[in-house]
Design goal:
single chain; alpha/beta; TIM Barrel; 2 domains; 9-stranded mixed sheet; 4-stranded parallel sheet; 19 helices; 19 strands; 16% strand; globular
Length: 584
C-alpha cells in the first residue's frame, strides 16, 4: 500500500451459506470439545529457491485441505504474525479455544492429510515465470499441487499422483510475441473463459521472476486462498506506454492488452450478479520506479492506475495481501453481523476547530492482518475518539480478526470504511448501468459491519451527482474524499456541503505520513490555516499506520504551541453531525 506516500466474541449461529458472495463456506465457531484437530504446520525460515518451492507446495495443499473446513494452519519461524493470531484466537471465548492443536511436519504428512482431495500435480516452467501463476490457477480448478521440476522429481512418483499438466516448454511467445503473455492468454481461454475459475476473485500475485531465487514467499503463502477459491492468478502491468522490466522484448502494451482481456472476461461472467475482488499488488520492480529499476512511472501513480483500470469492470482492489497467511482458514469463521458502539450526540456548536482522526489504510489484507495489531495493542487506545479505517469487504477474508476488533473496541473506537468503501475503486469510473449493483454490493457489507460512513473515497475527480446519490444509500452519515487527477483532466475537490442529508467533505492528507509529534502538529496547523481557519471549522485528518499514543502526542504539541486556536477531537458521528448542523 502506497497511498500514504502522497500525501473475539464467540459466535453461535451458522449462517446458511455466504450472504456476501464469498466462495468459502463458514463453520460454526461454537466448536465442541471433541472437535477434529487443528493441524499446525511450521514453515522454515530459509530464504532459498528450495524453501520457495516447498512453500508453494504447502500453500496448494493448504487450499485443498481447507476447502470445506478449517483444518490446517501455517505458522512461520520467520514471521511472528501467524502465531500471534493463533495464540489470540485460541483463548476463550474465541472460536479456536476448544480446538486441539496438533503439530504436523513435512510435505509427506501434508500430502497424507489431503488424501484423495488432491487429484494430481502441475509442473511449472522456471524459464517462464508466469507459469507459476498459471499452474496456481490450474491447481485451484483441478485440485492439484504445484511442483517445481526439482520437487516433481523428488516427490511425484512417491505420492503416486497423476501429472495433470507439465508447462515446461509450452510457451515461447509464438502467439503474442511474449512467452509471459502467451501463458496467461492460454490460461484465459482454457480456464477463465470456460467458467472454471471464480468470477468473484482475481489474484494479482507476483510470479517467480526474482522471488524464487531470493526465497521471497510473500505472494506464495497467499496461494492457499487462490487455490481454495479456484481463482485466476496473474501478474501484469497496468501501463500501456512502457515495456515492463521483466519482459523487455514484448511489444509495447502487450501486458495491458492481456490485462484488459482478463477483465473483459470476468465482467462478462459477473456483470449484473456481483462485483469482483482483485486481491494483490503490482510488482514494484517490474512496473514502477524504484532504486535500481528505473521507470517513468512512480509507485503511487502505478497503484492509482491499477484502480483506474479495473473500476469500469466492476472490480475493486484488496490492494495489498502479501504475507497474509491462512486466509483459507480464517475465512471460515462463522461471521455474524457486527454492531458498533454509538456515542452520545453533541448538539452545541462552539467557535473552535473540530478535528476527526482517521486511523487510515487498514483497507486491505496485509495492513489489517499485520500492521493493525501494533496500533490496536497500544495501551493508550481508548483515550481519544478515533475512526479506524477498515474496509468491510475484508469480512470475506479475515472475519474472525474483524470480529475481534469490534469485540475489544472501547467507546472511543469507531469503524468506517477506508479506500474507498467495500473495496478500493474509483466510483466515478463505475459505469452508470452498474451503479445499482455498486450500491447493493456496498450496502450489504456496510450493514454487516454496522458502518454508515465512507471517509476515504479515492477518485480522480469530484463525485458526480449519481455517485453521491449512490453513496447516500449506504453511507448517509458522511462522505469524505481525496482527489488525485492522474490523467490531467482537471480533477478538483468538492466544496464542503450536504447532499440529500449526507455530509460531503475533504479528507485532509497533509498528516498521512507521521514522523514525530511536532511534524504532525505542524501539518495539522498548516492545513487549518490553508483552509481559512473558520470557526467553527471541520477538519478530517488522515494518519496512516500510526499508534494512538503518537496521535495523542501530536495533539499535545498542537495545543501547547497554538493555544490561540482551540481544537476538539470528536468521533466521526458527531463530527459529520455537527458539520451538517452548521451547514443548515
Amino acid at each position: 500500500m502506497l497511498r500514504h506516500v502522497l500525501g473475539g466474541c464467540c459466535v453461535l449461529v451458522l449462517l446458511a451459506g455466504s450472504v456476501f458472495g464469498a466462495p468459502g463456506a463458514n463453520m460454526d465457531s461454537a466448536t465442541p470439545a471433541d472437535s477434529p484437530p487443528l493441524y499446525v504446520f511450521e514453515s522454515p525460515a530459509q530464504a532459498t529457491a528450495a524453501s520457495f518451492d516447498e512453500a508453494m507446495a504447502v500453500a496448494c495443499l493448504q487450499g485443498i485441505i481447507n476447502r470445506e473446513q478449517p483444518r490446517l494452519y501455517v505458522v512461520s519461524t520467520a514471521n511472528a504474525r501467524p502465531r500471534y493470531w493463533l495464540d489470540l484466537l485460541a483463548k476463550e471465548p474465541n472460536w479456536l479455544a476448544k480446538r486441539k492443536q496438533t503439530p504436523i511436519a513435512g510435505l509427506d504428512a501434508l500430502r497424507e492429510l489431503a488424501g484423495d482431495a488432491v487429484k494430481g500435480a502441475v509442473i511449472w516452467d522456471p524459464a517462464v515465470p508466469a507459469t507459476l501463476n498459471v499452474a496456481t490457477t490450474i491447481a485451484g480448478v483441478k485440485d492439484a499441487i504445484v511442483l517445481s521440476p526439482e520437487l516433481a522429481e523428488a516427490w511425484l512418483s512417491n505420492w503416486k499422483l497423476p501429472l495433470i499438466e507439465d508447462l515446461r516448454g509450452r510457451f515461447t511467445g509464438a502467439e503474442s510475441g511474449s512467452s509471459k503473455n502467451d501463458a496467461y492468454r492460454w490460461a484465459l481461454r482454457e480456464y477463465l473463459a470456460k467458467g472454471l475459475c471464480s468470477s468473484h476473485l482475481l489474484c494479482l500475485f507476483e510470479d517467480s521472476a526474482t522471488s524464487r531465487a531470493a526465497g521471497g514467499i510473500s505472494y506464495v503463502v497467499t496461494r492457499d486462498w487462490a487455490v481454495k477459491n479456484r481463482s485466476f492468478v496473474f501478474d501484469l502491468s497496468p501501463w500501456g506506454d512502457e515495456i515492463p522490466k521483466d519482459d523487455p522484448k514484448q511489444a509495447m502494451g502487450t501486458d495491458l492488452e492481456t490485462y484488459r482481456m482478463i477483465l473483459d472476461e470476468v465482467l462478462k461472467q459477473s456483470a449484473g450478479k456481483h462485483m469482483t475482488e482483485l486481491t494483490g499488488f503490482f510488482a514494484f520492480w517490474k512496473y514502477s520506479n524504484i532504486a535500481g529499476f528505473p521507470s517513468k512511472h512512480e509507485p503511487v501513480p502505478t497503484e492509482w492506475e491499477t484502480v483506474y483500470l479495473i473500476s469500469p469492470y466492476n472490480c475493486y482492489q484488496n490492494t495489498v495481501s502479501s504475507d497474509c497467511y491462512n486466509q483459507s482458514f480464517h475465512s471460515q469463521f462463522a461471521f455474524q453481523p457486527l454492531k458498533q458502539k454509538r456515542p452520545n450526540r453533541v448538539d452545541t456548536l462552539e467557535n473552535k476547530a473540530y478535528l476527526c482522526i482517521l486511523m487510515a489504510d487498514y483497507d486491505s489484507a496485509t495492513p489489517l492482518y499485520d500492521f493493525l495489531p501494533k496500533s490496536w495493542d497500544d495501551p493508550k487506545r481508548g483515550e481519544l475518539p478515533l475512526t479506524w479505517g477498515i474496509n468491510p469487504n475484508l469480512i470475506e477474508t479475515y472475519p474472525d480478526l474483524i470480529t475481534h476488533l469490534y469485540a475489544t473496541a472501547t467507546a472511543n473506537d469507531h469503524f468506517a470504511s477506508d479506500a474507498s468503501a467495500a473495496g478500493y475503486f474509483n466510483p466515478n469510473r463505475v459505469r452508470p448501468e452498474y451503479l445499482p449493483l455498486f450500491v447493493e454490493h456496498n450496502r450489504r457489507f456496510f450493514r454487516a459491519t454496522d458502518m454508515s460512513m465512507a471517509p476515504m473515497v479515492l477518485d480522480w475527480e469530484e463525485p458526480t451527482a449519481a455517485v453521491k446519490d449512490a453513496f447516500a444509500q449506504f453511507a448517509p452519515d458522511g462522505y469524505a474524499t481525496i482527489i488525485m487527477d492522474m490523467h490531467g483532466t482537471g480533477g478538483k475537490l468538492p466544496k464542503p456541503h450536504v447532499w440529500k442529508g449526507m455530509p460531503v467533505l475533504e479528507l485532509i492528507n497533509n498528516t498521512c505520513n507521521y514522523e514525530n509529534p511536532k511534524q504532525t502538529a505542524d501539518a495539522m496547523y498548516s492545513a487549518i490555516q490553508e483552509r481559512g481557519n473558520a470557526k467553527p471549522g471541520f477538519y478530517f485528518f488522515r494518519i496512516v499506520w500510526t499508534p494512538p499514543s503518537a496521535v495523542i502526542g501530536a495533539l499535545s504539541v498542537f495545543r501547547k504551541e497554538h493555544p490561540e486556536l482551540p481544537i476538539e477531537v470528536v468521533d466521526p458521528y458527531n463530527f459529520f453531525g455537527l458539520f451538517k448542523k452548521h451547514s443548515g
